[in-house]
Design brief:
Radius of gyration: 16 Å
Structural class: mainly alpha
Shape: globular
Strand content: under 5%
Order of helices and strands: HHHH
Largest sheet: none
Oligomer: single chain
Low-confidence stretches: none
Number of strands: 0
């Protein structure tokens, strides 16, 4: 829940309350649909981790979009934040894909 607070606050500050609520629900629904499609039928997927990860990705994109309107010092700070957050998103996604592919190949 802490991550929901952190990333939700970032998205709300950058894009507004309506965008936060809408994107949270859209990311949650899409992540659960993707889980149903991608995971084996014997697995159970529930919770808001996909929605929170979606907010995390959206906060990175919102920060990158905001860079043009900032002064030089704020651009550097915003770019560093976006780079660190973006690296975490990419690394986490790649790790999960590797874990799933190794699990799938071990089952067969």
């Amino acid at each position: 829940m802490f991550l929901l607070l952190v990333f939700g606050k970032m998205v709300e500050e950058d894009l507004g309350k309506r965008a936060l609520i809408g994107s949270f629900f859209i990311c949650g629904v899409l992540s659960n649909i993707f889980s149903l499609w991608y995971l084996p039928t014997s697995s159970i997927s529930m919770g808001s981790s996909g929605a929170i990860f979606g907010l995390y990705s959206l906060s990175v994109l919102a920060k990158l979009r905001k860079i043009k309107s900032l002064d030089a010092e704020e651009r550097v700070i915003n770019f560093v934040e976006s780079s660190v957050f973006g690296y975490f998103v990419a690394a986490t996604l790649l790790h999960e894909m590797k874990m799933h592919s190794s699990t799938s190949s071990n089952v067969n």
